[in-house]
């Protein structure tokens, strides 16, 4: 018998990509491939790319160059958002054998059967308008927390974003499909599931009577109904809601989390700017006043809840006054931490027509200012719970004899490694 072919994966970008990479890995393992670490020598390397920042594009090129030096005879497959947006650009990178767009990544096994090293780079992509199917994905055996994709694509047209061009129209699984996946994950001993999507609050949208996972969609569902259905299931101790737009985070969803034993008191709500003028230029679908209302309701019902915030600095036209407005708004807001993104120009976005352009060094200064604010916010939040006891789910990874876990409200805990604590929820005094 010939030895199994080995495959190695590297994921750039978001939790959604992480869940899809895990699913692609299982697909190939079912086809007889053996998964190995990306640092090792492999017969096939698969890079799942992101398109949100310039850095992700550069990182993809660097990874391909590294593979070329280490294993020039190996096959290199690029998929993900960057692959959908710029397939020809990727195909021109020396060493890339195949580029799989949004519609073709889940057909990777078939494409690999038809691929030979030395052939011209194969591009399997289509117009994003033609992408309509939903492929559920989840990560398993990768970490204690599992990322479960329940929604894909986006119908919004934010002026800085390429995601709709990379992932297509909003579409999602059926509630019964999500429930079936959750039961499977529970059967595999998963303790915490993070619900993910491109525009998660848009869950339930899809053409009437389309077929998802073998079942027809007879009516539109919504995210509240999904959360309510999952909350009634046994077997999974914890759910987290990944990033959800403030205009789609309804009072009903917040109240459900407040009254739930399984949904964790932890929200991640993109803001992007604390200036209404900039929010308008970004084509966001809310104003800062609505955002503040959402935060206030969460903190009224769950004073212990963690709230993460996405912010973009250096957007075209952002003046010092606009940035100060953002800083002051966030400083006053009862939030926990920030994910700060430095604006980078993306091809074919409306933001490229806006101005004046903010100098790059100013963008970096603003980023640093908000990251310092984030650090102080996180420290303040953590200190409020010093001496209290909270439930911590410990993860498998150990480093220098230590293990990590997170409380229900997302405070990171580091403790001496104990094998019996792995994938267990432990009462822990902070």
Automatic annotation (TrEMBL):
<dbReference type="Pfam" id="PF04055">
    <property type="entry name" value="Radical_SAM"/>
</dbReference>
<dbReference type="InterPro" id="IPR038135">
    <property type="entry name" value="Methylthiotransferase_N_sf"/>
</dbReference>
<keyword id="KW-0411">Iron-sulfur</keyword>
<feature type="domain" description="MTTase N-terminal">
    <location>
        <begin position="5"/>
        <end position="117"/>
    </location>
</feature>
<dbReference type="GO" id="GO:0035597">
    <property type="term" value="F:tRNA-2-methylthio-N(6)-dimethylallyladenosine(37) synthase activity"/>
</dbReference>
<keyword id="KW-0808">Transferase</keyword>
<dbReference type="GO" id="GO:0005829">
    <property type="term" value="C:cytosol"/>
</dbReference>
<keyword id="KW-0408">Iron</keyword>
<dbReference type="InterPro" id="IPR020612">
    <property type="entry name" value="Methylthiotransferase_CS"/>
</dbReference>
<dbReference type="InterPro" id="IPR006467">
    <property type="entry name" value="MiaB-like_bact"/>
</dbReference>
<dbReference type="InterPro" id="IPR007197">
    <property type="entry name" value="rSAM"/>
</dbReference>
<keyword id="KW-0819">tRNA processing</keyword>
<keyword id="KW-0963">Cytoplasm</keyword>
<dbReference type="InterPro" id="IPR058240">
    <property type="entry name" value="rSAM_sf"/>
</dbReference>
<dbReference type="InterPro" id="IPR023404">
    <property type="entry name" value="rSAM_horseshoe"/>
</dbReference>
<feature type="domain" description="Radical SAM core">
    <location>
        <begin position="140"/>
        <end position="382"/>
    </location>
</feature>
<dbReference type="InterPro" id="IPR006638">
    <property type="entry name" value="Elp3/MiaA/NifB-like_rSAM"/>
</dbReference>
<dbReference type="InterPro" id="IPR013848">
    <property type="entry name" value="Methylthiotransferase_N"/>
</dbReference>
<dbReference type="GO" id="GO:0046872">
    <property type="term" value="F:metal ion binding"/>
</dbReference>
<keyword id="KW-0949">S-adenosyl-L-methionine</keyword>
<keyword id="KW-0479">Metal-binding</keyword>
<protein>
    <submittedName>
        <fullName>tRNA (N(6)-L-threonylcarbamoyladenosine(37)-C(2))-methylthiotransferase MtaB</fullName>
    </submittedName>
</protein>
<dbReference type="GO" id="GO:0051539">
    <property type="term" value="F:4 iron, 4 sulfur cluster binding"/>
</dbReference>
<dbReference type="InterPro" id="IPR005839">
    <property type="entry name" value="Methylthiotransferase"/>
</dbReference>
<dbReference type="Pfam" id="PF00919">
    <property type="entry name" value="UPF0004"/>
</dbReference>
<keyword id="KW-0004">4Fe-4S</keyword>
